[in-house]
Amino acid sequence: MLDDLKKANEVLQNGGTILYPTDTIWGIGCDATQPKAIEKVYKIKFRKPEKSLILLADSLDMIEKYVEDIPDIARELVESYRDPLTIIYNKARKLPKNLIPNDGTIAIRIPKDEFCIKLIGMLGKPITSTSANLSGDPTPISYNKISKEIKEAVDYICNFKQFRINTIKPSTLLRVNDDGQIQILRN
Fold first, then answer.
1. Which residue ranges of the chain lie beneath pLDDT 50?
2. Please, which contacts does 29-33 make with residues 24 or more away whose CB atoms are closer than 8 Å?
């Protein structure tokens, strides 16, 4: 795992893209602070830039750097929720314009996966996370189901967990409004 982490981190630092296992599914990732790397992810997926990407962070402290405010209820949910949980936060900041939708929000998850947490920690910044499929295609449940086009388009493919079959569904997706109201967008 350590060799994979080092290679993936080097690619991310140099503005590249990776194919990597997350706590939910295989994802396409890049350093979320590099606009050109984000463009690459959109091109790999044939995805419209209006459709935003999820970020993975390693802690609430990291999230605080990239959103203006974390509502108390969001903190409580992050600390207590057992399943993968992605929260859409208002007022994203210190992120490239091509990552933030017109409404100024950003979706962030702290993964419950050792590989992801270590990789994010090594990079010291959030990583984008989007399913390893072309836009509109089904989400692959294992590495072997990822299309050849995706595998050939990324700069590095992690070897770790390539033989795992994902049984975990995509993360629960919530939006926490400034008034503390919670909207469940995907369960």
1. none
2. 29/56, 29/127, 29/128, 29/129, 29/130, 30/127, 30/128, 31/123, 31/125, 31/127, 32/95, 32/96, 32/99, 32/125, 32/126, 32/127, 32/128, 33/94, 33/95, 33/96, 33/125, 33/126
Distance CA(71)–CA(24), nearest Å, equals 25
Asked if 68 and 93 touch (Cβ cutoff 8 Å), the reply is yes
pLDDT tens-place string over residues 120-145: 999 999 999 988 888 888 888 788 88
Name the residue ranges covered by the structural domains of the chain.
2-186
Domain spanning 2-186: which CATH class is it, in words? alpha beta
Q: Side chain identity at 60, as an amino acid letter? A: L
How far lies 134's CA from each of 6, 34, 131, 160, in Å? 27, 21, 8, 22
